[in-house]
């Protein structure tokens, strides 16, 4: 784990664990089969992603890549994300092994088209989100806007492939910029200077709406940028901007940022993968306890950061402002520390587990229909050839426990739409995300966006100018 532990991302792990628990305890999907899982974090580092890929190709607890002999811990699929580069790197490393991979939290984008054969994305086709943003801008008459990317390659790709669809509808961009990458040491001063120039350019612009196209950690950077660089020298009317955030983004925070204001998000609009609350998930989270979850390698790090305490067994000098008792209640945590409602990314992970299981069931049924006897030994041998799962994973179509249909399109994309959410923040640094609209890719073009403008809470500064 990294020192920059993202407490919000712990929910992703719990969504995975909850889905596996449901299937093992209640589901008839895989009779006489017990699912297991292993979770690892790359800490947003590419070298860690490659290391994890090598570990995946090794026998458990033995780092010997390309040599796997542990039939009891035979992985049949990988669920990866939420960063696009994590998925790309895993796809590159595992392409020759034909492992089924399911990505969450980012849109499909591969260096090699052949790699897409082994990938499924719990994310809609990227074009639907851009169409949704376009319709949102037109609906509110925002034809003079700004766009901020957090990755230079993504920015260039947008200019090359998507810019024309906006200009053809009369949308003009005052700026299309990229926030400088985080630098340390001697390069930090230059990075801060470049970021300061960018922030001033955004704030001094006459645009009313700024599109933020980022990923899971983007709000970390944005929150720090606003806190450090906001200035009274910037006219109030220039600060009256609505942030429009893409679905790849989620609210995340680290302990050192917890006291930073989040009021700049008040009135923001964001896209999110369409999701519904899964029955029983909140209760499952509330029952987590570091004293009992011995196999959970993340819970103690989460507990220390979320409740700002230290476990007595880990204290070196006996000094700590607060001792973790394990009697702390997760449901008491502020939403800015940990969300109790299932997020879009967590919902995607939950559905990804079920998609893999439905594919396994279909593969097993296919063998039985051909007259083959699938006993325990043959089933284990079958699972040693995960490449056979691809066909069945592409074909899955089922209703999840929330009653929603789960299926994939021809390019491996998740067939769903987006929710449009309105952010409402409070002085105690808590917030709400209120559902105010949706993007339905299956609707006629004129009805693609449904939005309730009267329910939107706009930035406070809109009412002061």
Automatic annotation (TrEMBL):
Receptor ligand binding region domain ranges (all copies): 15-424
Subcellular location(s) of the protein: Membrane
Main location: membrane
Signal peptide bounds: none
Entries under InterPro entries matching the protein: ANF_lig-bd_rcpt, GPCR_3, GPCR_3_Ca_sens_rcpt-rel, Peripla_BP_I
Key words, A-Z: Glycoprotein, Membrane, Receptor, Transmembrane, Transmembrane helix
Membrane topology: Multi-pass membrane protein
Pfam families to which the protein is assigned, alphabetical: ANF_receptor
Molecular functions per Gene Ontology: G protein-coupled receptor activity
Superkingdom of the source species: Eukaryota
GO cellular component: plasma membrane
Spans through the membrane: none
PANTHER family xrefs: CALCIUM-SENSING RECEPTOR-RELATED, G-PROTEIN COUPLED RECEPTORS FAMILY 3 PROFILE DOMAIN-CONTAINING PROTEIN
Stated name of the protein: Vomeronasal type-2 receptor 26-like
Organism of this sequence: Python bivittatus
Gene: LOC112541921
């Amino acid at each position: 784990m990294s020192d920059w532990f993202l407490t919000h991302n712990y929910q992703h792990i719990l969504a995975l664990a909850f889905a596996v628990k449901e299937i093992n305890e209640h589901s008839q999907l895989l009779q006489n089969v017990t699912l297991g899982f292993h979770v690892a974090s790359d800490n947003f580092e590419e070298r860690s992603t490659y290391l994890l890929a090598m570990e995946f190709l090794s026998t458990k607890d033995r780092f010997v890549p390309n040599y796997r002999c542990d039939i009891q811990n035979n992985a049949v699929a990988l669920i990866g994300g939420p960063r696009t580069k994590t998925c790309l790197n895993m796809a590159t490393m595992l392409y020759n092994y034909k492992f089924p991979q399911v990505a969450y939290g980012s849109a499909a984008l591969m260096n090699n088209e052949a790699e897409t054969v082994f990938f499924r994305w719990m994310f809609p086709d990227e074009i639907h989100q851009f169409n949704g943003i376009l319709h949102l801008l037109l609906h509110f008459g925002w034809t003079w806007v700004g766009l901020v990317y957090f990755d230079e390659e993504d920015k260039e790709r947008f200019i090359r492939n998507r810019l024309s669809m906006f200009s053809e509808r009369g949308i003009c961009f005052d700026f299309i910029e990229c926030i400088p990458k985080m630098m340390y040491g001697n390069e930090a001063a230059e990075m801060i200077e470049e970021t300061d120039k960018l922030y001033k350019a955004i704030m001094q612009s006459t645009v009313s709406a700024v599109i933020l196209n980022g990923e899971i950690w983007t709000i970390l950077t944005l929150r720090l940028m606003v806190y450090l660089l906001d200035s009274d020298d910037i006219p109030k009317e220039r600060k009256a901007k609505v942030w429009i955030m893409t679905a790849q983004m989620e609210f995340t925070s680290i302990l050192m940022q917890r006291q930073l204001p989040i009021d700049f998000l008040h009135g923001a609009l964001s896209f999110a993968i369409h999701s519904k609350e899964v029955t029983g998930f909140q209760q499952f989270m509330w029952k987590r306890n570091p004293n009992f979850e011995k196999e959970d390698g993340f819970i103690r790090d989460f507990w220390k950061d979320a409740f700002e305490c230290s476990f007595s067994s880990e204290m070196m000098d006996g000094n700590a402002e607060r001792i973790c008792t394990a009697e702390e209640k997760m449901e008491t945590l502020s939403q800015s520390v940990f969300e109790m409602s299932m997020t879009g990314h967590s919902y995607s992970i939950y559905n990804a587990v079920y998609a893999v299981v439905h594919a396994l069931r279909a593969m097993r049924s296919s063998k039985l229909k051909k007259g083959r006897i699938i006993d325990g030994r043959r089933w284990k041998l079958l699972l040693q050839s995960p490449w056979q799962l691809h066909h069945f994973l592409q074909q899955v179509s089922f209703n999840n426990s929330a009653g929603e249909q789960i299926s994939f399109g021809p390019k491996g994309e998740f067939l769903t739409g987006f929710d449009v959410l309105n952010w409402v923040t409070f002085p105690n640094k808590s917030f709400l995300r209120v559902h105010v609209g949706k993007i339905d890719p299956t609707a006629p073009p004129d009805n693609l966006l449904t939005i309730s403008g009267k329910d939107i809470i706009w930035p406070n500064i809109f009412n002061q100018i």
